[in-house]
Amino acid sequence: MSETKFLTPDEVTERYRGGVSVGTLRNWRAMKIGPSFVKIGKAVLYPLGELEAWDERNRVQCRASKRLDEHVDDRA
How far apart are the first and last CA of the chain? Predict the structure, then answer.
């Protein structure tokens, strides 16, 4: 059985290099937006797998990247 890894709000802030503050995470939890979390008593924990899924849902693909991919496909 694999163990699920969890991050605290402070660790989530570190993961996103300060781009998301602990206060922003708190506001998002109150508004039920942002990454999924688990609350046990007063402890708020973010499953690492949920953060990775949230990252994917928020991925932005630029047009330049698509054109580059098309050129790579043409060579194959």
Answer: 40
The full DSSP string for 2-57 is PPPPEE-HHHHHHHTTTSS-HHHHHHHHHHT-SS--EEETTEEEEEHHHHHHHHHH
Q: What is the pTM of this model?
A: 0.76
Q: Please name the residues in contact with 38: beta carbons below 8 A apart, sequence gap of 6 or more.
A: 6, 44, 45, 46, 47
Sign of CA pseudo-dihedral 51, 56, 60, 61: positive
Q: If 0-12 CB within 10 Å is exposed, 13-18 middle and 19+ buried, where does residue 14 land?
A: exposed
Amino acid found at 62: C
Q: Model confidence over 5-51: pLDDT tens digits?
A: 999 999 999 999 999 999 999 999 999 999 999 999 999 999 999 99
